[in-house]
Amino acid sequence: MSLSSLLTQSPLTLIFFYPKDDTPGCTLEAQTFTRLKSEFSELEIQVIGISKDSEASHEKFTTKCNLGIELIADEDGALHEQFWVVGEKKNYGKVYIGTIRSTFLLDETGKILKEWRNVKATGHGEKVLREVREFIGK
To answer: What DSSP line would sit under 52-115, residue for residue?
Structure first.
């Protein structure tokens, strides 16, 4: 599925970019958004995760972690480039280029209404829900 086709399915869409399927932080983030899915749905917001992993990897990740959200495979990195979520990262003193964990609230045309960049997985889903409620006034 493409992002553009998914945008038309809901008045608002929350997309979150994450580095890698089935890693501790990414699993926590995806499970949190799954747990909060009904609360986002009440606000007419669909939630979609995006990584560079393959569709097969997403299927395995979804099944293993019992995820209830859509995942998009952006293997060529086109969406990552479009949203400027690739950059320098550091891990245990090693510097490398990778996906910077980021989240965006979009309208049905793809316009960015709100963004959260370079976030930590812990507590992020709850923070986004709280801020989106304030943003849309619900």
So the answer is: SS-HHHHHHHHHHHT--SEEEE-TT-HHHHHTT-EEEEEETTEEEEEEPPEEEEEETT--EEEE
Check if 65 is active-site: no
CA angle 42, 119, 123 (to 5 degrees): 55
Say if pTM beats, i.e. exceeds, 0.85.
yes
Residue-wise pLDDT for 95-104, tens only, equals 999 999 999 9
pLDDT in tens, 84-123: 999 999 888 999 999 999 999 999 999 999 999 999 999 9
Region of 106 on the Ramachandran plot (φ > 0 left; ψ -120 to 50 alpha; else beta): beta
CATH of region 3-136: 3.40.30.10
Catalytic residue (one of 26, 30, 48, 105): 26
Domain edges within the chain: 3-136
